[in-house]
Amino acid sequence: MRSRAVGGGALTRSPPARLLPRMAARRARPPLDLALAATLHDPSGALVPDLRRALPVLRRLYRHLAVATSPPTAERMVRALEAEGVHAGSPRSNTRGPLYRLSLRAALAGGAGRVHYLDFDRALHWAAVAPRELAAVAQLATRHAHLWVGRTPKAHASHHRPLFATEVVVNRLLARRLGLGGRVDLLVPSFALARETAVALLARSRARDTAVYGELVALLAALAPAPAYVECRGLDWETPDRHRRAVRRLGLAEWRRREDTAAEWARRTDVAAEILRGFERALRGGAAPRPALLRLRSPVGR
User: In the chain, what are the domains?
Assistant: First the structure.
């Protein structure tokens, strides 16, 4: 192994010549045959710096990125996404169902064989705090026909209490309806599907707003009778990323405590009820499917 001089006269060892082609191939490895379908609601544009930091990570993993934005999303964020060639447009109404379906259609238009859905603020956070875990999940998405991605108990509990507590109840009720034993987190939402399954999902989805979260659970269970399931640490609470100045000033614990209000409990209780209604509505009076869940070990490493 040869040594070469670096600035200041220090010596570093060069890798053996026989390893150079292998190292170059590893660096030039193309993205997976996987598209990222993502949605973003960012009225303040606070996540523009996060976008610029995370895009290199995401582009190494995904063949195509499609980010649909809500109508109130800040113009500077929309322009940044357009400049990077990843903006999938915005629906006419500020409702979740059309937004989710727009992102999935745009991701499919990229031609990849599989699609991974993930809220874009979560994707930005995950790429920053646990890029190796995200890469491992992307690999899993290419090895399993259907993959459901949930939060570890610790990641879920990092969210503010009204969201966490109401989602725990909804997850338990949905799991019971689907005949799933043990803990399962169905409300990230994050899932990876073979192309044909994503097309079928789009054909069946009708929900307009919050009910889409329950509808997705019902449709995914019906379309994927034997999904793989993995829980991840990088899906911890991403919302503080939008409020870094306030979080630094107050501290995360105090900032999180201030989200624990009667109004937020009422809102999250309404959201929970609407999710359950969306699930039942998607079944159209039929029996709930009984998917055979294949539980995978959580990826190691951040």
Answer: 31-295 (3.90.550.10)
